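worker-03 picked up job from queue 'complexes'. Input manifest follows; two sequence lines, order preserved.
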Amino acid sequence: MSWDNELLERAHKIIELYPQKRSALGPLLYLAQEKDGFISDDSIVEISNLVDITEVQVKSVSSFYSMYKEEQTGTYLLSVCKSISCEINDSRSVINSVKEFTGLENYETDQDKLFTFEEVECIGACGGAPAIQVNYETVEGLTPEKTIEMCEWLKNDKPEIIVADQLQNKFGGTQSFDWAIEDNTGSAYTVPGFQNIGTAKEKDN
Amino acid sequence: MSDQININVNGSKIRTDSDQLIIEACEDSGIHIPRFCWHKRMDPVGMCRMCLVEIETPRGKALVPSCTTKVSEDLVVDTESEVVKKAQEGVLEFLLINHPLDCPVCDKAGECPLQDQTMAYGPGESRFVEDKRHFEKPIPISEIILLDRERCILCARCTRFSDEISGDPLIEFIQRGNKTEVNTFPDEPFRSYFSGNTVQICPVGALTSTSYRFKARPWDLKKVSSTSNCSSMGCSVELNVSQNKMLRILGEDNEFTNQGWLSDKGRYNFEYLHSEKRILKPVLNNDSTNEISINESMELISNEISVDNNSNISFIVGHNSTNEEYYALNNFAENLNKVNKDQNINVYLSDDYLYEGFFQNTDLLGKVQDLDLVDTIILWAQDIKDNLPTLYLRIRQAVKNGKKLVIFGHTNTAMKELADSYFGQEIISKNLEFNVEISEIPNFNELINNKNVLAIIGKSSPIQNTNPISNLINYLDKNSNLKILNCFAKGNTFGALQNIDLVKGLNEFINEFDSRKNNIVFTIGSNPVNSSIYSNQIKDKLMDANFVVSLDLFKNETTELANIILPTTSLGEKEGTFTNLEMRILKQNKILPTPGSVLNEWEYWSMMLNKIDIENNYESEFELNLQLCEEYLDKDNVPSFDNLNKPSNLDGVLNSKSINIEIENVEPGTLEILFVNRLYGDSSTQINSPSISMLGAERFIEMNNDTFIKHNLSSYTVNLVQGVITLQVKIKINNHLPNELIIAPLNRRGFRDIDTTKPYELIEVKNLEELSVN
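worker-03 finished. Artifact:
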């Protein structure tokens, strides 16, 4: 039993949301990633018991989707968009600045386990290209300079919770769309912040 | 029944069922559409795109996969147009991007769908110059299956089989895109009773079995259809032989029985045929140096049986003989009786699960096919998954198609997930008796009242009072439209029942054994000293007997006690018929020469008769077959060799004879341990088949968690102690079992000496960790 009671309780609550146990597989994998920073084999065994499917079926799903990480990620996952809109708006230089600052190649994690860098396909922020996600919290309208500033801030301040609006205010530029509602919830792990499965955290101002 | 509709394929009209797929409709009319992923016994997925055909749609012609498109009235299909050809070439060119060109060293080459279809439909040359994928090869995904991942074309046949058909999805696609591979979870091997089927249905050489890898080329194989005697299901198989060696057994699609699938035991239990340990000459007094000629052995035996006193002659028969051999044995016994009326001659079947069964009312006898026709399936018998694996697959399929399954405890816990109702310890006691009135069982009546019911019925335990079973059958007969499948699981048990006038059980052998008389015992293809709960008593009786003759393939615990061992033939070495559990008679064919001075069982009986000057009236299996056919009740469709060899009868014919079983109902006392037979055990055929010999080695018992706690245990490795017997066993937790009843495998080493009705102790193994460190 590698999962503690608190995590198991959260898992059972998630499973209750679905008519079939195995439908909870996706969210449970996020819990596993929240716990370890990646999907460990121990967690796969745990999940297979929770939702009554075999380990290899869990592994099949977790290895299919690129947001379930097979290797340990750093505290901050930097996902820089390389798709068409961002490319046109010079995402290459944003990518290069991240690479230069962190010294990482694609899918690499630094020795301090602080940053993981990856180039990703469209993250749905074309209106504010180029865009980047830090632990799946989106910042739009970046420049190479602002990008380095952001990385430095992450490195020095080591914020516990990343909130998209805050990042946007500090480092972002043009935004696709402004919801005009202050949102203080963000992500504390290399997992998207979802309120219904408890991966979202609220940040005090 | 679905309606018949017309479709037009390549310009000709075809009449077909309205619920068929295009690929099925074309197949039935003799038009072959190439395919890799589609298999008629599994759900379509449309993975490989090889079966693309052109159909006419309101928006013009369109390419569709024929394995996922249903036929419709007046559908126009073109399977050979230029567009289709171009599509097929494209698909094959893509499949070959990563498929290695290692056909010269690949086992599949010569019978490989990818190779054949590339020849027939491929572009002829590839435009790809890039490196192909490379993987470590081969990786063992279980003890008997190897995987070469770079050969895989991702058709998902194996993964779908393990999920849909056998229900143990231990292999899956891992990763995505061009990294996709089939694999298992680390430390969780593909340990399935049915894993061999994935090797057979793999359309490339990605999955291979240890027993066949690098052994032969398909074009060198001699093939013959036959019937497996692994279980009383009578699975249709194809025996593959090269240079007089059996190299492979494949499943054949028999609509009425196995539908193409086999258990791994049925598939891989053949290497023993060529084992060095096989007995090839008659042996005297269990001394290998003391080989004698067949003539000498016949002389010795006939001297014994012709002694003119009131001797007891007993035959303990196994379940691997053909109907013809049982018939010849019966004929031999009858003739002995004629010569000497004082002799007491009896035939005992070596199966602890034998009881009188339900054969009286032949109208009630069901068929395997009834699984797909009835409303409710009732199961109360020994462990079906382990003992009748292909029947388990049929039940799984029936449940998937909406049939209700009702299981009574406590042996079929592996099927609980499939059941609509599972009646465990609240309803069925530890002693396999009803705790409540049958009519009072909750939620039972609505499943059976006025419904079509198939009851798969047999003893769950070697020692069991069978009255509760009879009560259940009587209740079902009164309240439902009942059919019965008598569940004796072993080999050709039903052939023995049909062809031997009166069959008794091993307990009767012990009770009727009279040490004051001259006892002559024949054991025929059976090893009661190892495989029965009465082992010790039988051993005593055999030691006490005046003369013991064993007909067998190998030396074993029983032949040790024999005065003469006569070597016999096995699957593929003899021709004959086999009767399965629904009284379907199927053909077994000969493809191997008999090794050494080995004779068929019937030849020994015939020679012995000659020696004691009784004229026998048969000279071949063929004549025996004609004689035994005369006794079948349905005279119009007798299972003669000629009749069974007709193309229309390759799936066997149904026919019955009167069956007489005489077995005393034993009061069990209190059952502490429930014995089950596992698929893999310590039979001499399995032990002498190197590829699967290790699969029956693990010694484990099952119990529920409460029992585990009650015994105050902390580790899962314990000593099972009963009197002077100590067995180190592993404990597996099975929470479907009743409190304080443990399940133990009867056919694994060491368990046969345990008395199931006596108390036992579980004692922790001390210092186990220290031992393993050292």
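worker-03 released lock.
The two ends of chain B are 68 Å apart (CA to CA).
Chain B has four domains: 4-80, 283-354+493-661, 362-486, 673-773.
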